[in-house]
Fold this protein.
Amino acid sequence: MNEKTESATTAKKPWVKPTLTTHKSGFMNKFGNVSSHNHIEELDGVAISSLIKKYGSPVFVISEKRLRHNYRRLHDAFADRYPNVQMAWSYKTNYLGAVCNTFHQQGSWAEVVSGFEYEKARSLGIPGHHILFNGPHKTRVDIERSINEGAHLHIDHLDELYLIEKVARENNCKVDVTIRLNFDTGFTEPWSRFGFNVESGQAMDAAGRIASSDYLCLTGLHSHIGTFVLEHRAYTKQAKIMCDFMNKVEKETNCQINSIDIGGGFASKNALQGIYLPPEQVVPSYEQYAEAVCDVILEATHHRQQQSRQRPLLILETGRALVDDAEVLLASVYANKRLPDGRRAVILDAGVNALFTAFWYNHQITPTRLLDGVVEETVIYGPLCMNIDVVRASIMLPPVEVDDVMVISPVGAYNNTQWLQFIEYRPPVVYIDVDGNISIVRRKESLTDITSLEDIPEHLKLDNP
Ligand SMILES: Cc1ncc(COP(=O)(O)O)c(C=O)c1O
């Protein structure tokens, strides 16, 4: 470091008398713009006021246009760079039939992680050979059904391997299987509880065990390195580790790997709590993720061309990055209050019961009319009589009025699957199709929906008053 720069970095800053600067709505001050108070009145050309009038509040609203657009863009980003790509919709991310079928119509297979999700995919008409069965818990019945229907079984651990082999032996058939791998990319916390570890040799041992079986045949490799992965280089490393393993396992066990499934995990344009830059600045584009993966696999499978072998099918199980920004939750202001510490609080008619992801995202909350007045730090609560029901712990907002409708976004991933029937009924979900027609794709819950699962023993029944 030269003398000039050293003195510049160590020089003391001049003392400035502290001042209080009032934040005024819509004005700049020395800290920048106070906050922008955009408002929206329409979703895909449909007036929000008409949605609330017809379906009530709260209500989830899905955009078919956005679902299809996202799918095409992600698919093309990979298919432009690699010749053999297949998407498999991650059911747990959002298994509303309308969402699944939109993706299935676009060409997606189903990726399921339980007997229930498997049944759901089959009930939507997806054939077994277009279902990937992942996850650490598959019952014997699930395995028998998957084998009979030609689904792709992804093995998580040795006990599952033995069970699949046993069922295959009993059915006197040879089953193609995929193993799930886990490893350290150096960029994300390894999800070592799922699958077989590469570094320790566990994965190669499992492959060897499969190679020695008369009833199993290793044809695929799978891994899912984590979720909301903001570092696209993690996928380069993942692809490299999987390809190295593929080439090694083919050599050592004589198997032929036909598919490499890189799981999901691409970040959506949501604001993860604790990440201070806005999603537009930190979330990689579909193209960046595609570039991170495809070049590596092309290079690692180049030799297959000389052998006239097809390159492995590249499978993507992307969830949140496809669906999150295709859905919003409309919720209304139920009350305003003042907390003892002076902060303003707003109670909405939807909380963490409907919006499970409020636990880890700072969702955007956009008014549906132009708000004016002094912007203040505000806490947004939901309607539950539970302290944990916080939709936003801190947001700068001008005053809102009772019945003001707020648009909470993006909410398409992990809410319509992880929402709770807790204290309140779960709200309806409506779907705006590409022509602007609206349908209810899940109606609001009723007391009958909930009590139909219950039974009351005879002696506990109360006499009619
Ligand atoms: C095996 C597997 N595939 C795909 C996904 C979808 O992940 P994401 O929504 O982060 O893309 C998950 C989610 O945890 C998963 O566990």
The longest strand covers residues 327-338. The domain at 134-318 is CATH 3.20.20.10 (TIM Barrel). Confidence is low (pLDDT under 50) at residues 1-8.
